[in-house]
């Protein structure tokens, strides 16, 4: 017993001294140096340790690292022997041959079966994984699991007895919040996927001109949608119930991006909805997290002014003006936002590329060809009401947009009810039909968030089956 106690005390003191004065300072120094190296060379994150070693001492450090790995593996092997021996002594492991290598210390043992098993396992893992990346991943999971069992799990189990004495309250809060976030995210994602699958095709837009019952009414319409690419399915539903379209129609999508503020000349991204004679536009309005949505009058003024600039630029593209003086400002306008903060994510870049990438056949077309197409359409279909006034020059088109704004702006907002399909499971029906709809009806409505005036608001109801 005395020998065992002395041996235990010796191990404890040795570990305490070595960890406090050697291991811990060395680790802090190494990790601090690697962190400083990564701040300067972030591209070398995959192999930070060896990349951060200066050239003259690379091989000496490599030898030391290999020696440390050998010592660490020997410690793991010795630990395996000790654990198996103790497990066998308390009846938790099958019988194996245990050889005591020391007559003084009971814990120093050797198990041949375990030694050969570890050797074979090392060879198999090395051949199967082939790279140190997979071995490192397995090691990382093992270390975190050990921490969970030996530390975090013990801390948690030590307070579980308080569950019935009021400790259930934070768990209830966490469960409720996780349920709300999970339901909202799932249905919101399915709703967006539904809109992507059912977005309006180009053929439908071209067929609008052949429908004699559709009229163009004076004014400008803003149809709000979360869909960034394409036209939402709420539009044909709106046309079928109210066969009238404003003389200028803009599909507006409001998006928040992870920068503080967005400059006014970089806030609105436009794109024509083909055919261009329809005077329909796609517009993504970007706000930073410190930006506030303007009052309706100011928002309309800013959008129309930026729309005029877009029409101006598109006119020069159609006329074949592709000099650097005309092209560079457009590229700079939408690239400066990405360089300003350095934190803009890929989704924002995707939005910009989708809206600003020119349609090559449309850009290479000349104004004469456009007029000829318009003339053909007007001559072959005299009842075509969707193309009220053919596109003439740039001044006429800008004046047409300004007049449409002066005639009044109407906000079109989709009132979408999301329901589960008939073949859906009972659980999905509960989540979609009841839980999600309850959350949607009790949260802030779209017109309040966007500060849309009720006098100029038109709601369009539609049901999505997901």
UniProtKB/TrEMBL annotation:
Coiled-coil regions, chain positions: none
InterPro entries according to UniProt: K+_transporter, K_trans_C, K_trans_N
Pfam families documented for this protein: K_trans, K_trans_C
All copies of domain K+ potassium transporter C-terminal, residue ranges: 218-466
Domain K+ potassium transporter integral membrane: 14-151
Localisation: Cell membrane
Subcellular location, principal: membrane
Keyword match Iron-sulfur: no
One Gene Ontology term, aspect cellular component: plasma membrane
Molecular-function GO term, any one: potassium ion transmembrane transporter activity
Keywords of the record: Ion transport, Membrane, Potassium, Potassium transport, Transmembrane, Transmembrane helix, Transport
Positions of transmembrane segments: 7-37, 57-84, 138-161, 167-187
Keyword Oxidoreductase: no
Membrane topology: Multi-pass membrane protein
PANTHER family noted in UniProt: OSMOTIC STRESS POTASSIUM TRANSPORTER (PTHR30540), POTASSIUM TRANSPORTER 5 (PTHR30540:SF94)
Family: Belongs to the HAK/KUP transporter (TC 2.A.72.3) family.
Name the record gives this protein: Potassium transporter
Species of provenance: Fagus sylvatica (Beechnut)
